[in-house]
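Homework-ish question, so no full write-ups if that breaks the rules, but can someone show me the predicted structure for this set?
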Amino acid sequence: MTQYDDRVLHELDGIKEYDNPMPGWLMAIWWGSLIFSGAYLMFFALSFGEGTMEAEYRQQTQSAIASVQAYVDAHPLVPPKPAELLAGAGNEAVIDLGASRFARSCAACHGEQAQGLIGPNLTDDRWLHGGSVEQIFQTVAKGWPAKGMPPWGRALPPEELSALVSYIRSRQATNPPNPRAAEGDQVMPEPLPAQ
Amino acid sequence: MTQTVRYDDRTPRLFFLAALVWAVVGMLVGVLIAAMLFMPALNVAPYLTFGRLRPLHTNAVIFAFCGNIIFAGTYHSMQRLLKTRLFSDLLSKVHFYGWQLLIVVAAVALVNGNTQGKEYAELPWLLDIVIAILWVIFAVNFFGTIAIRRERHIYVAIWFYIATIVAVAILHIGNSIAVPYSLLGSYPAYAGVKDALMQWWYGHNAVAFFLTTPFLGLMYYYLPKAAERPVFSYRLSIMHFWSLVFVYIWAGPHHLHYSAVPEWASTLGMLFSLILWMPSWGGMVNGFFTLRGAWHKVREDPILKFMVVAVTYYGMSTFEGPMMSIKSVNAVSHFTDWTIGHVHAGALGWNAFLSFGILYWVVPRLWKTPLYSTRLATFHFWVSTVGLIAYQVSMWVAGITQWAMWRAFEPDGRLVYPDFIETVLRLVPMYEVRLVGGLLFFGGLLVGGWNLVQTIRSAPADYAVEPDVEAPPLVVDTVVPGAVTPANTYDHAFYALQHAMRHGVHRMLEARIVTFTVLTALALAVGSLAESIPMFFNKENVKEIASVKPYTPLEVVGRDIYIREGCYNCHSQMVRPFRYETERYGEYSKAGEYVYDHPFQWGSKRTGPDLQRVGGKYPSLWHVRHMAQPASTTPGSIMPAYPHLLTSGFDTGLIGAKLRALRTVGVPYSDGEIDTAVAAMRTQAGTIAAEVESQQGPTGLADKEIIALTAYLQRLGTDIRWRRPATQAPYSATLQAPATPATPSTPRDATAAERAAPAAATVPAVQPSTPAGVRGGPTE
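A: Not a homework solution, just the prediction itself:
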């Protein structure tokens, strides 16, 4: 610890002021920050746009694409077959998974009982974008963004997407109260496989 | 030969009392809004919602509580440091009663929704003018007191007061320039990126020159007084005063990292924040080292306890601040609760603790009676300290948690938490801890307030009779032109030179107040001008985008509702160029998109999701239902409900004045557009109301505020066309051929040109005919 002289310079209203030097470590912070800033500024000015946030973002996106590509190559996605989706409609575990996801992500627009609210009724036999389970899967995965239906394929794991479709199929003809008025073409539901 | 002085202690007494009252009010509102964050039922629309009360909280604690402490301490200490009475009793009275009246009117205005929508500068333009007048009154009273001083040299505390008065005047006027459209309504002169730069030049330096320099001045008077120890280093005082004043003013753009503000500005903001480390710590070192030889007193004395922790928190905050200004650290902390924790470490730890220390020291002296209870003061100290630590730690945890959840990706390219609400609800336990911390701090304040009130109640009857103080007169040796005085002799120049060589140039400056003040203003001007002139005069900084058009009259009114309800307190409008933000929200924000935003609404905290690309994301009925009852569309939502928007009609009377005011600040509305504005509003509102009805929503909304707000929200971020980079989960790309195994189309980097181009075929959901451009993404 430095010894300070503690020589009194001035006194005002009973407050004395010492003439001590500034601590060396504090001056080291000062000069260090100045030198670092000068160097950084030089580096920034001479980088000619590289290392900027635009370039950072491009690079980030590119490496993300590469790693996602590598993952998808190693784990190829096989879209579910209609028979699997229909079979899921009779499987309690699948229905539970679909129902819990439906409650969190879909009920806000389609109603808690899928009776339709902001978005269409999913329990009647009218469909705007096709009523086969395969078409419903596509609608859920890709969405209809212009109409406010998000592409859930970007957001949800594959097994939840399939479970959602199975759950929706299981809600067919349940006639919940306060349904939204029918929209679209009539499509008879595909038969569920015998248990 | 001495003269007799009788100090005016009535004025500081009044200001100290007012500070105590506003501390209770401001922190009570703080506790309330902390509770609202996990108990949305506490919101009572329309007046008592988070969006309106949060500005009330910040303004009350900064300008009412801290403001009154500053005025009280300045008036109290400067009379003693200059050995003179305050310049004018009348000005002191006008200053005191004017400021309190202003606070009351401001509180009513904020709760009523009269706001300019700029953080810490929310007050309507009329009140801005009142603030400016009161500040000038303060300045006249202050410099007048200096003019009649009996001490030749001004002490370091006074330097800091001078910097405060000059800087706050420059900042307040510079940031508040606006064109009014009604008695309380106005649009700021600056738009978008420029408004953001001006706002954070102001906002950051409000911290610098309202919460730092005046409190350093107070520290330099009250800490050596309370510790009865000399100030450690006069040289350090000089060094850190001038470097602080010169450097601080540059640091504002560190609030705008990774935004649409040009990178040179954000880089300057970061570097000057790093350079600010020493100037800030200079104050801490002088504070701590002043206590050498007095540390044993800290054990017994609650006053010194408060002051020591205040200086400690000052040091911690001014280290955390430069660290958070580093771009990559800011990428973590920005928009999260970390910032909230940081600002409260400074505001509670430094400003409030120092204020409490000063109050405990000064109240017994001003009321001429011993403190009612030292034990209660010690209790206040410990309760507040525990509360403060709980507050700070919970906000650190909440901030880092939120950032980590925002950026989490699955290996297949999906966000782990696509629903924003998941990232909010995870923070609720931390919000509960924060409320407990806030309650402890508030409880401590109540105990302290009671202690001080009891002290005042035991004051002797003649406490207000000030004693006469003897002081020698000021030795005037300045040159009066033409006068025959010893000072005017030839020798005077030699004498002055000799004096300067013996005592240093700065000592001379301390006797020349005008020069000192001008130099302070110049130090402030350098950074201000160096950052603002290029921003305003170099068009490269805000690249024009031809497709960006002014808001329609209905959208202008909707935007005013957005501002009135304080949506910016929880929602940002700034998508940063990070993959995890563009994946969640859409294309990152461009400077050219904001050229008609008077004021900018980028926000600084995401309690809710970003809204820059919300336009077209949901059907209009979604917005109607969401505003009426947020939890109906977002289960678990903590947003307040705004049912009044569905019942009150939107304003059509002011639209002409509004458009003309906007035209004055540079938005190109034609005479025809202004003349037909009401008809245009009715038409657009009719279309949206019809859309809501066709979606089987409520009827009869065509003239209601909800439709204007929906019009604005549906417009947001839709003026440019963009598409997502091809990093999406592969399902949507592979479903074209369900029979074959998945092989995603060749991923491509979306170049800037492609992003700006109409939708590419790789995104099947794209509807090229949609005028608003590409949309899509998971819900929030």
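Now go work out the reasoning yourself. Hint: Residues 8-74 of chain A form one domain.
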